[in-house]
């Protein structure tokens, strides 16, 4: 119902939804990210299934046992899992309202993720020098596709996390930046879970 002032001029009714519009939008964006994450689950599930089917098709070339150096992969796994821990510490700092600690832990997470990417690129370069290119066999095509897609996701996560850090330094901890930190944290933990499957299915089963 419209309100009026003393002179009888009508004012439009106040919109009580304006106060709740922002939190509702943040919840919708988070829900949208969950939908995206489900599509990523399907994507990686398809790549895992393809790799399992094709891992024996080496075209007469070397297989996983001859190519993979498990020591370096274990180091990469430890680094990525540690980055998941530091990402969790960033969330704790955010919930306590400590902006500098939040940015600091995110920075350490980015550093660890960058080291992981560096080790993965070094592994790919070593394999190529050994003649194990993506076109050498169906096994290597499936390997590069699966592991490379995960690495690309990690790289996107790093760029995303740096962007969130810049927003935190400029705007502080707000409902918007909180949602963004929660989302990138969820994405990062998801990548860690995927890597555990990669480590088990591709590397451990490959060298056993």
UniProtKB/TrEMBL annotation:
<feature type="transmembrane region" description="Helical">
    <location>
        <begin position="33"/>
        <end position="54"/>
    </location>
</feature>
<dbReference type="InterPro" id="IPR000298">
    <property type="entry name" value="Cyt_c_oxidase-like_su3"/>
</dbReference>
<feature type="transmembrane region" description="Helical">
    <location>
        <begin position="186"/>
        <end position="206"/>
    </location>
</feature>
<keyword id="KW-0560">Oxidoreductase</keyword>
<keyword id="KW-0249">Electron transport</keyword>
<feature type="transmembrane region" description="Helical">
    <location>
        <begin position="139"/>
        <end position="166"/>
    </location>
</feature>
<comment type="subunit">
    <text>Heterooctamer of two A chains, two B chains, two C chains and two D chains.</text>
</comment>
<comment type="similarity">
    <text>Belongs to the cytochrome c oxidase subunit 3 family.</text>
</comment>
<feature type="region of interest" description="Disordered">
    <location>
        <begin position="1"/>
        <end position="22"/>
    </location>
</feature>
<keyword id="KW-0812">Transmembrane</keyword>
<dbReference type="InterPro" id="IPR033946">
    <property type="entry name" value="Ubiquinol_oxase_su3_dom"/>
</dbReference>
<feature type="transmembrane region" description="Helical">
    <location>
        <begin position="74"/>
        <end position="94"/>
    </location>
</feature>
<feature type="transmembrane region" description="Helical">
    <location>
        <begin position="101"/>
        <end position="119"/>
    </location>
</feature>
<dbReference type="InterPro" id="IPR035973">
    <property type="entry name" value="Cyt_c_oxidase_su3-like_sf"/>
</dbReference>
<dbReference type="InterPro" id="IPR024791">
    <property type="entry name" value="Cyt_c/ubiquinol_Oxase_su3"/>
</dbReference>
<dbReference type="InterPro" id="IPR014206">
    <property type="entry name" value="Cyt_c_ubiqinol_oxidase_su3"/>
</dbReference>
<keyword id="KW-0813">Transport</keyword>
<keyword id="KW-0472">Membrane</keyword>
<comment type="function">
    <text>Cytochrome bo(3) ubiquinol terminal oxidase is the component of the aerobic respiratory chain of E.coli that predominates when cells are grown at high aeration. Has proton pump activity across the membrane in addition to electron transfer, pumping 2 protons/electron.</text>
</comment>
<dbReference type="InterPro" id="IPR013833">
    <property type="entry name" value="Cyt_c_oxidase_su3_a-hlx"/>
</dbReference>
<feature type="domain" description="Heme-copper oxidase subunit III family profile">
    <location>
        <begin position="31"/>
        <end position="207"/>
    </location>
</feature>
<keyword id="KW-1003">Cell membrane</keyword>
<keyword id="KW-1133">Transmembrane helix</keyword>
<protein>
    <recommendedName>
        <fullName>Cytochrome bo(3) ubiquinol oxidase subunit 3</fullName>
    </recommendedName>
</protein>
<dbReference type="Pfam" id="PF00510">
    <property type="entry name" value="COX3"/>
</dbReference>
């Amino acid at each position: 119902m419209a309100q009026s002032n003393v002179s009888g001029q009508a004012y439009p009714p106040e919109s009580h939804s304006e106060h709740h519009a922002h939190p509702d939008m943040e919840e919708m964006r988070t829900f949208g990210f969950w939908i995206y994450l489900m599509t990523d689950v399907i994507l990686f599930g398809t790549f895992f299934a393809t790799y399992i089917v094709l891992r024996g098709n080496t075209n007469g070339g070397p297989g996983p046992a001859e190519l993979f150096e498990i020591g370096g992969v274990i180091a990469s796994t430890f680094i990525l899992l540690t980055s998941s821990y530091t990402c969790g510490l960033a969330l704790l700092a955010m919930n306590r309202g400590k902006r500098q600690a939040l940015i600091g832990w995110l920075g350490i997470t980015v550093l660890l993720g960058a080291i992981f990417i560096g080790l993965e690129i070094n592994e790919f370069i070593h394999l190529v020098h050994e003649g194990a290119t993506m076109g050498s066999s169906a096994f290597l095509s499936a390997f590069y596709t699966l592991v490379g897609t995960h690495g690309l996701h990690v790289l996107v996560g790093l760029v995303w996390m740096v962007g969130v850090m810049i927003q935190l330094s400029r705007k502080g901890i707000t409902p918007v930046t909180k949602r963004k930190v929660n989302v990138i944290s969820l994405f990062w933990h998801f990548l860690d879970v995927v890597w555990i499957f990669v480590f088990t299915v591709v590397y451990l089963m490959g060298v056993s």
